[in-house]
# Entry
Amino acid sequence: MILVTGATGTVGGEVVRRLPAGVRVRIMARDPGRVTGAPAGAQTVAGDHEDPGSLARALAGVGTAFLVTTRVGGGDDAAFVAAARRAGVRRVVKLSAAAVLDPGAGDVITCWQRAAEEEVRGCGLEWTLLRPRAFMSNSLAWAASVRGERTVRALYGTSPHACVDPRDVAEVAVRVLTEEGHAGRAYTLTGPQAVTAVGQSEVLGRLLGVPLRFVELSPDQARAAWARRYPQPVAEALLESAGRQRAGAKARVEDTVREVTGRRARSFAQWAADHLEAFAPPAPPAGPAAAAAPAPPGGPAAPAGPAVPGEGGPVRSQGR
# Structure
């Protein structure tokens, strides 16, 4: 049996939707009611990394586990692998982040991710590490301002990033979870080319058929936006991550998606075309009601925060 954690997140949700028919699946979530897209016959159980009893119940009879953790600085990975060892699990597949390979990355998120990898590698079970760059889906942070203002706001708009479609990460995960031959491997996962926020804006504008305006945020503006959403150490880590991206630390492209799945990684244009509805303005009402509809009060929408540049950690949609 395969246990999937993180099934309400970006990659875990795609994993449960892609597991082949006939595979016995159990899904662990803090709130099982939030799990969607589970295959027929899948078990869904309540579980929390801080509740040893729930981990024991979720891991009973499991052979392979997909491990996703999000609590920065917590001991969730250590608790999970200890419970997995006691339950007789054979293999753990850990969702990590590409930033762990960067010697210049010393922020709180990356240090936590490195420690989590050490827990998995030293647990005595078979292991595989998946290390994605940022997820293309992070650009959904721009959706409201694109719909309302035809504007993208981001930090360091010309800095390159080899971001990856989370569906590709999930497809690699499914291969690793269901095939042999991946034990002791660490896979760095990127898209087929490095892109910039300015370039992504141009792609979205072309697909939408409207010109989009790009506004570059200052570091202070980005810090303030992240600080409204995350604890201060995490906001500072995201700002540091963006600085490393500006310096070119995230531009390298790997062909790992093709090597594992046999198919080339999807481009940002492919991801955007498949998610264009999120960025498209609502159609105006037809007929006389359209002319009578009042303008929205308050002027243009408030600026949205920057897309998250990092991976793993506290934001389920990120990648580093």
Confidence is low (pLDDT under 50) at residues 288-304, 309-318.
